[in-house]
Design a protein that fits this description.
Helix content is 33%, strand content 14%. It is α+β, with helices and mostly antiparallel strands. Bound molecules: iron/sulfur cluster (2 copies).
């Protein structure tokens, strides 16, 4: 009979994951220490949810007693932008991760299928699945299992797909042979730091959310005004910002189109007309973005951003 690692690797690839790797479930003290320094420096802006449950972030065995392994999976979402001709001031760019269907609805069912395969292998096992959960340090685990390294822009980069990936994590009580951690391959490159329009990457791997366009156009509460020094430099970004990823040589050289058509731009749109956003009603917003990643945001957020972009 195949061992569990072989079964999971095969099934993960069948489910469309680009990569699957494993680490032993152990503490993340050093990594959590770095996260805490970032939080204590005020770089998380008002994302206070990142301070919750530190003991679980530091040790996944507090999320699942008896956990022995952490499995991390990468799902490629890359497709090409098609808005090179969109006029600045008339159109606002959407971040690539938001073009298609809500990825949580794609990734989580696939993680659950893998968790079921573990249960089938050993009915006495327990597993928990995470996708974008504040409780698991997904990027740090992705480094530890060797999926990729944290680039200077702080996002995980893989050698074969670049950084256009969603991460999923399964914590399980089954022991699975661990893989080697990733090696940092940014070397002397600083392109993402140099090209960030707001100089939000204050040190390698340290992004100050207070200066980051992605924070201001997605995470910041709709009622918060975008500060002038940021809104003057939005660089055409309406929802999120991909600039530091677009300029990265690992993306330029290794990005590959996703096979999952649900992640392709809905209505072929990689940017939106600002006037149509500003005049959109709540009913139109709900209808147009039903089941999409953008729907997780609010119409008021999009309209605040569109207003700022119209005056940029
Ligand atoms: S997302 Fe945009 S603003 Fe934020 S660090 Fe990257 S390039 Fe800078
Ligand atoms: S642009 Fe250069 S420094 Fe930035 S993440 Fe990519 S390789 Fe690393």
């Amino acid at each position: 009979m195949d061992n569990l690692k072989e079964i999971l690797s095969r099934k993960a690839l069948d489910l469309g994951f680009a990569k699957v790797r494993v680490a032993e479930a152990s503490t993340m003290s050093k990594e959590y220490g770095r996260l805490k320094d970032w939080l204590d420096s005020g770089y998380s802006a008002d994302m206070d949810w990142m301070r919750r449950s530190p003991e679980k972030r530091e040790d996944v065995r507090r999320l699942l007693p008896g956990a022995k392994s952490v499995i991390v999976l990468a799902y490629n979402y890359f497709s090409e932008r098609n808005d090179d001709n969109a006029q600045p001031g008339e159109y606002g760019k959407l971040s690539g991760y938001g073009w298609g269907d809500d990825y949580h609805g794609i990734i989580i069912p696939k993680l659950r299928q893998l968790a079921s395969a573990i249960k089938e292998f050993n009915p006495g096992s327990e597993s928990r699945c995470f996708n974008d959960s504040g409780l698991v340090m997904e990027k740090q685990w992705a480094e530890r299992v060797g999926i990729g390294w944290q680039g200077k822009h702080s996002i995980i980069i893989t050698r074969d797909y670049g950084s256009w990936i969603f991460l999923g994590v399964i914590v399980t009580t089954e022991y699975i042979e661990p893989d080697e951690p990733a090696v940092d391959r940014c070397a002397g490159c600083t392109i993402c730091m140099d090209k960030c329009p707001t100089q939000a990457i204050v040190k390698p791997k340290i992004v100050d959310a207070n200066k980051c366009i992605a924070y201001w156009t997605i995470e910041a509460r709709a009622e918060s005004e975008i500060p002038d020094e940021i809104s003057r430099k939005l660089s055409g970004c309406l929802f999120g910002c991909d600039i530091c990823q677009q300029v990265c040589p690992w993306n330029i050289n290794y990005q590959k189109p996703t096979n999952d058509t649900r992640l392709l731009p809905r209505h072929g749109e990689t940017s939106l007309n600002l006037n149509s956003v500003l005049s959109m009603t709540q009913e139109e917003f709900s209808e147009r973005f039903r089941g999409s990643t953008i729907k997780r945001s609010k119409l008021a957020t999009l309209q605040r951003n569109a207003k700022a972009l119209s005056c940029e």
